[in-house]
Design a protein that fits this description.
The chain has 323 residues and is of the alpha/beta class. Helix content is 30%, strand content 24%. It is a peripheral membrane protein.
């Protein structure tokens, strides 16, 4: 059984200006110990997908349809009390901003020990030891001393490592990570990615890793789902997708990575801007920025399996010799 299955998830925001379809019919699944990279530019709906999984979408947003199956149990519509028992215990989230996790007026040891005791009946000393080990796991030096510190006494990168340590405390079955290493320097980023991979391999933890950084996904994920304007436009095994993308948007994303540009040439980029989710034209949302678009793109294409395990939502995909 898959750790997580998301089926036709729709999360909409009901604003005064109209309905924003932030997530519109997203589906994917993750097996035990596997890592799914959820990729897309800002406003593509990837973070809202992550918040939807944990039931953290605040009004005026709500999940309007679809299923989120954790080990076969549908989390959509689950009572808040049941969700709270799962959150932080079996399903954890690492936020982009560590201060969404940390309370600025409490010492780190208080926050970590209370997190352990909220879900498990263990002694305070055992909870402290587990907190200390978690800080060591994410590479924080002198964990005994740092436990006594307040969040403001840490640098931004250190705070993020504390937030990641809190997510690892219960060795959850599923972690949803929303760009957690964006603010970290490359050395620490590599260290944390290595720890996360070890966690997935040794403990069977499944990960949804939300990012816009394709280099992180290339080294970490098993599968990749590329989102654009609230929908998944391409999905498949990570190396297959990055080596020979089918969808023009994925093609553009990979082409705009600076290291793929020849020296002295202008940086390649995708023309135009992400469309407003309030006023999406019918058909493919990418058609206004795509050099392959024609009249056939005025009808929304399905996410079709174009080769074994490879899915793309496109009328004119890059397949065969031209890819």
């Amino acid at each position: 059984m898959n750790t997580l299955e998301v089926k036709n998830l729709c999360t909409h925001f009901f604003t005064r200006a109209g309905v924003v379809k932030a997530v519109d019919g997203v589906s994917f699944s993750i097996g035990r110990g596997k890592v799914l990279g959820l990729v897309g530019e800002s406003g593509s709906g990837k973070s809202v997908t992550g918040f939807s999984i944990l039931g953290l979408v605040d009004p005026p947003g709500r999940v309007v349809s679809g299923e989120i199956l954790y080990k076969g149990k549908n989390l959509v519509g689950l009572p808040e009390e049941e969700l709270r028992r799962l959150r932080g215990n079996r399903i954890a989230m690492i936020f982009q901003d560590p201060m969404m996790t940390l309370n600025p007026v409490l010492r780190v040891d208080t926050q970590m020990i209370e997190t352990v005791l909220a879900h498990e009946k263990v002694s305070r000393e055992e909870a402290r030891q587990r907190s200390r080990d978690a800080l060591g796991m994410v590479g924080i030096p002198s964990p005994d001393e740092r436990l006594k510190s307040y969040p403001h006494q840490f640098s931004g990168g250190m705070r993020q490592r504390v937030a990641i340590a809190i997510a690892l405390l219960h060795r959850p079955d599923l972690i949803v990570a929303d760009e957690p290493t964006t603010a970290l320097d490359v050395t620490i980023q590599g260290q944390i990615l290595a720890e996360v991979q070890k966690l997935a391999q040794n403990l069977g933890t499944s990960l949804v890793w939300i990012t816009h950084d394709l280099s992180v996904v290339a080294g970490l994920a098993d599968e990749i789902a590329v989102m654009y304007a609230g929908r998944v436009v391409e999905q498949g095994e990570v190396n297959a997708v990055l080596d020979a993308p089918y969808h023009p948007y994925t093609h553009g994303l990979i082409g705009s990575v600076p290291s793929r540009n020849k020296r002295g040439e202008p940086l390649r980029q995708i023309p135009g801007m992400t469309p407003s989710l309030l006023s999406l034209a019918p058909g493919c949302a990418f058609k206004t920025r795509c050099n392959r678009a024609d009249a056939a793109c005025d009808v929304m294409p399905n996410l079709d399996e174009l080769s074994p395990g490879r899915f793309a939502r496109c009328v004119h995909p890059h397949v065969g010799a031209e890819a």
